[in-house]
Amino acid sequence: MSTDNIKKNVVYSVLDLATVIEGKTPADTFVTSLDLARQAERFGYTRYWFAEHHNMISVASSATAILIGHIAGGTSTIRVGSGGIMLPNHSPLVVAEQFGTLASLYPGRIDLGLGRAPGTDQVTARAIRGENFNAAHNFPEDIQKLQQFFSEDNSGSKVRAIPGEGLDVPIWVLGSSPDSAHLAAAMGLPYAFASHFAPTYFKEAIKLYRKNFRPSQYLDKPYVMACVNVVAADTDDKAAYLSTSVLQFFMGVVTGSRKLLQPPVESMENIWSMQEEYAVNQMLSYSFIGGKEKLKQKISTFLDQTQVDEVMATSHIFDHTARVESYRLFSQILQEINAARV
C-alpha cells in the first residue's frame, strides 16, 4: 500500500432513490429529499445523485433529470446528478439537451452517470422505448455521441445539443460487472460501482478498471466510486432495528413483491424465509450498519482494502429524522478517517 494511497482523502456522497415510505406519497418524498440534500450540503457531502427507475412503487426517481433540477435549485454548492441515467431508454441528443440545460442553470454542479440497464422490467422497458425496444443499443457508441454533443467541435454539425454544446458535464460509467469496468477504463472515465446491491464482481471489476485504465482528456488516472448501504445510529442496537426497513426493501427486490418502504420491526424472523434471508444478505454484503465506533472500524477496513476514491452512501431508513442523523454520523466518520490519514 503506497503512502499516497494512505494519505488521500476519501470523498463521500449520497445516493437517493427517492424512496416512498408507507403512508406517504411521492410528493412527500420530494420534500424530504430536498431537506436531506440541504443537510448533506451542510455535512460536507460532495454529490447528491438520483437513479433512474421505473414501475417501482417505492422508488419515485423515474423523471431523474427533473428531480436533479429540483435539488440543485434548492441547494447552493453540492454537486447533483444521476446515478444513473439508463442510456438505452433515451436518445443521446435528448440526454445532452436535458443535462446541458441543467448545467446551464447550475454551472459546475451537474454530474451525468450513465448505465446500460433498463432500470425496470422488460414489459415496462418496452413501454418506455416503444418501437425502439428491439433496436440495437450500443452503450459505448451512445456515450461517444453524448461526448460529441457536449464538445465545442460539434458546432459545425447538422445536429447540435442546444443547450449542452461546449459545456463541462462530467460523464461517469456506472456498472455492476467486469464489462462496465473494461468500458470505463478504455474510455478514460470515472467508474461508479453498484456494490450496494450487486457486490459479487466489485473487487474484480475495480481491479480490472485500474489495470486497464487509459488516461483521457477527461481523467488522467483511475477514479473509483463505491456505492454502499449505510445505517448509522447512536447505538448498534438502534441501527440494527432501523436496518430492518432496508432488509424488507431488498426482500421485495428478491421476491418481486414490491411495497412502499416499511417501518422497522423488532425481528425479521416471521417476515422472511431462510432462502430470502440468505439472498438479501448476499445482496447487502457491502452494508455498514451500527453505531459510530463500529462503523468507523468497518469503513476504515473497507477503504484500506479497496482504496476507493469515493464512497456513496444510500440509506433506506423509514424515519426522516433518523435518516438525516445517519448521514450526519457517516459524514463525521469519514471526516475523522480522513483526518487520521493526513
Polypeptide structure, described:
- With 342 residues, the protein is of the alpha/beta class.
- It has a single domain (3-229, 307-324), classed as Luciferase-like domain (TIM Barrel, Alpha-Beta Barrel), CATH 3.20.20.30.
- Helices cover 45% and strands 15% of the residues.
- The protein has 13 helices and nine strands.
- It has helices spanning 3-7, 26-43, 64-73, 92-105, 122-129, 139-150, 178-187, 202-212, 236-242, 244-255, 274-283, 292-306, 320-341, and strands at residues 11-16, 47-50, 79-86, 110-115, 171-175, 191-193, 224-232, 287-290, 310-314.
- It has an eight-stranded parallel barrel, surrounded by eight helices.
- Strand 2 (47-50), helix 3 and strand 3 form a beta-alpha-beta unit.
- Helix 3 (64-73) runs parallel beside helix 4 (92-105), helix 4 (92-105) packs across helix 6 and helix 7 runs parallel beside helix 8 (202-212).
- The longest helix is centred in the C-terminal third of the chain and has 22 residues, at 320-341.
- The radius of gyration is 20 Å and the shape is globular.
- The two termini are 15 Å apart.
- Mean pLDDT is 91; it is low at 1-6.
Supply the key terms.
single chain; 342 residues; alpha/beta; TIM Barrel; 9 strands; Luciferase-like_dom; Luciferase-like monooxygenase; oxidoreductase activity, acting on paired donors, with incorporation or reduction of molecular oxygen; Bact_Lucif_Oxidored; CmoO-like
Would you state the CATH class? Alpha Beta
In the CATH hierarchy, what is the superfamily? Luciferase-like domain
- What fraction, in percent, of the residue positions are helical? 40-55%
Count of strand segments: 9
Structural class by sheet pairing and helices = alpha/beta
The biggest beta sheet reads: 8 strands, parallel, barrel
GO molecular function: oxidoreductase activity, acting on paired donors, with incorporation or reduction of molecular oxygen
GO cellular component, one term: cytosol
Protein name: Luciferase-like monooxygenase
Family: To bacterial alkanal monooxygenase alpha and beta chains.
